[in-house]
Specification:
single chain, 140 residues, alpha/beta, Rossmann fold, 5-stranded parallel sheet, 5 strands, methylglyoxal synthase activity, Methylgl_synth
């Protein structure tokens, strides 16, 4: 079971909902997270249970970032709107930087999201389960 987060800017919410509907079967059995409105919209259209954080501008991006910083997130689908300025842009940049630091796959557009979800469906994310099993500094 992997930890997967969904985030979408306002003009990308319909796109992420349709994407999750299309791949709902892949997401079943994983622990799902989302920022507030995005998670609500997905749950209204699917049978998925999603832990919803606050809205992105109110700190939801940072709440997901906290899981990334602890290496407790395995995949993020973050459909950004590159043509619209976001009031919480520093939070977005911080989240993406944390993903790079921790080596967390993050899709910022639908094409990359599809590649990552198809890899997830094939079982190509087994290396993430090893990361969880053998975390540095964790005594057995």
């Amino acid at each position: 079971m992997l930890n997967i987060a969904f985030i979408a800017h306002d003009r990308k919410k319909e796109e992420i909902v349709n994407f999750v509907i299309a791949y709902e079967h892949v997401f079943h059995g994983h622990k799902l997270y989302s920022t507030g409105t995005t998670g609500l919209r997905i749950m209204e259209q699917t049978q998925l249970d999603i832990h919803r954080f606050m809205s992105g501008p109110l700190g939801g991006d940072q709440q997901i970032g906290a899981l990334v910083a602890k290496n407790e997130m395995d995949l993020i689908i973050f459909l950004r709107d590159p043509l619209m300025a976001q009031p919480h842009e520093p939070d977005i940049i911080a989240l993406l930087r944390l993903c790079d630091v921790q080596g967390i796959p993050v899709a910022t557009n639908i094409a990359t999201a599809e590649i990552l979800v198809k890899a997830l469906d094939r079982g190509d994310f087994m290396w993430r389960e090893l990361v969880h099993k053998y975390k540095p500094g964790v005594e057995e």
